[in-house]
């Protein structure tokens, strides 16, 4: 094992808090070669595909990496922005805005960095940067509201792996999930209400979450339950009754059975059954990305209209909306309890706690 370069330890160095936002990662460009690199790293992670390595190596290198990069590049090209991949653009913006918000309220200001589990900036490089900046305490916040081994635990794995290569590791705190956090639910509620104020309300709100293989549920992954809870809380906040919303799972990958019902099938069925208008929100994605902008807003729309539906609305993700940034800040402050008590910033923490309680009592 080789250690990462790190500055020599000095007594009395200032002590700071670092916040590391981690998202999934995205290719460098919407091209087959960039996609091959990205998919190779992503799909080789044993947290993502749990098949025995020799068998999976043959399938991945023999088939998937020969066909999928080209097809995925075509899909990414449809949503690429002048600033790059939407997932990266929004994640970077969230980190900047959170830095600004916390910087005004907590002294000394925590340092916020973002990292990508696959691709760049890597988790190791972001942790090295926080260390350089004097952070000896780091809060890791994966940007997945619902915990799953394939996403959240994999982000933690990358953090632990980077720490294995440090002499002087920071103290760590991990945010496991925030699927039922009142501020996150309230930000989603406001997102939907604003859409309805502008465009009217559809007959049905479809809440579409990224799927995972069904076997992960049987092996103890709480992801499915956390998606259901988010959906129930959002429906309650919006005062929707059981036939005004539905939950479905998108982005199936491979041949195994995934969580059901599948979003594509639900949209087709709704169109066929005569639902005139459907609104779709993807509460599990805090940033718009390939899976929302292409799979839902383009492909999903095509399926619904093709099956006879008349009007399709995609409700955009929370992205850089102020109430979402405030929710993120509240989440961070709550997890800094004890690290902040007695320091300037503790008051902000107290206020945030009170607001969260007030919101919680309402829903
Ligand atoms: C929101 C949570 C996510 C879970 C859970 C998740 C599980 C999961 N994903 C795959 C396979 C792929 N996912 C891909 C893209 C992708 N996935 C998420 C989030 C979750 N994935 C996001 C945010 C994105 C978009 C990234 C972007 O750049 O915009 C892809 C790549 C695209 C493609 O080729 O289709 C794959 C592949 C598995 C196997 C899995 C659970 C085991
Ligand atoms: Fe995925
Ligand atoms: Fe469940």
Descriptive notes:
The chain has 363 residues and is an alpha/beta fold. It has 2 domains: 16-24 and 88-145 and 157-179 and 324-362, Rossmann fold (3-Layer(aba) Sandwich), CATH 3.40.50; 182-315, 3-Layer(aba) Sandwich (Rossmann fold), CATH 3.40.50.1400. Helix content is 50%, strand content 13%. It is built from 12 helices and 8 strands. The chain has helices spanning 32-44, 53-77, 86-105, 123-132, 149-163, 182-199, 214-218, 223-237, 263-273, 290-306, 322-335, 346-362; strands at residues 16-23, 111-116, 135-142, 171-174, 204-210, 245-250, 277-281, 311-315. The protein has a 4-stranded parallel β-sheet with strand order 2-1-3-4, sandwiched between helices. The chain has a 4-stranded parallel β-sheet with strand order 6-5-7-8, with helices on both faces. Helix 5 links the parallel strand 3 and strand 4 (171-174). Helix 6 (182-199) packs across helix 8 and helix 9 packs parallel to helix 10. The protein is globular, with a radius of gyration of 21 Å. The mean pLDDT is 95. The structure holds the ligand C=CC1=C(C)c2cc3[nH]c(cc4nc(cc5[nH]c(cc1n2)c(C)c5CCC(=O)O)C(CCC(=O)O)=C4C)c(C)c3C=C and fe (ii) ion (2 copies). The site of one fe (ii) ion (FE2) has 3 residues, from helix 8. One fe (ii) ion (FE2) binds next to helix 8.
């Amino acid at each position: 094992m080789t250690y990462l370069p790190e500055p020599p330890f000095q007594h009395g160095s200032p002590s700071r808090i670092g916040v590391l936002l981690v998202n999934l990662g995205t290719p460098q460009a919407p091209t087959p070669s960039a996609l091959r690199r990205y998919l190779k790293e992503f799909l080789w992670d044993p947290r993502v595909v749990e098949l025995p390595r020799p068998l999976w190596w043959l399938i991945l290198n023999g088939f998937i990496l020969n066909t999928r990069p080209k097809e995925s590049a075509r899909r990414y090209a449809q949503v690429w922005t002048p600033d790059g991949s939407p997932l990266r653009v929004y994640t970077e913006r969230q980190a900047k805005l959170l830095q600004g918000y916390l910087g005004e309220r907590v002294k000394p200001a925590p340092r916020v960095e973002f990292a990508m589990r696959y691709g760049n900036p890597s988790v190791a490089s972001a942790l090295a940067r926080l260390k350089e900046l004097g952070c000896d305490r780091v809060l890791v916040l994966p940007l997945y509201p619902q915990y799953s081994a394939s996403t959240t635990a994999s982000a933690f794995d990358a953090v632990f792996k980077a720490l294995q290569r440090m002499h002087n590791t920071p103290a760590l705190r991990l945010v496991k999930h925030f699927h039922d956090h009142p501020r996150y639910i309230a930000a989603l509620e406001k997102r939907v209400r604003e859409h309805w104020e502008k465009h009217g309300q559809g007959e049905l709100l479809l809440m579409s979450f990224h799927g995972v293989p069904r076997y992960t549920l049987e092996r103890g992954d709480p992801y499915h339950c956390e998606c259901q809870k988010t959906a129930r809380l959002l429906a309650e906040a919006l005062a929707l009754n059981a036939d005004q919303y539905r939950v479905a799972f998108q982005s199936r990958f491979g041949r195994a059975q995934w969580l059901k019902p599948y979003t594509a099938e639900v949209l087709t069925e709704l169109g066929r059954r005569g639902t005139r208008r459907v609104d779709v929100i993807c509460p599990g994605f805090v940033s718009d990305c390939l899976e929302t902008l292409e799979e839902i807003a383009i492909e999903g729309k095509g399926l619904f209209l093709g099956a006879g539906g008349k009007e399709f609305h995609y409700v955009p993700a929370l992205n850089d909306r102020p109430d979402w940034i405030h929710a993120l800040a509240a989440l961070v402050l709550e997890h800094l309890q004890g690290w902040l008590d007695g320091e300037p910033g503790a008051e902000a923490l107290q206020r945030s706690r009170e607001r969260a309680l007030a919101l919680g009592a309402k829903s």
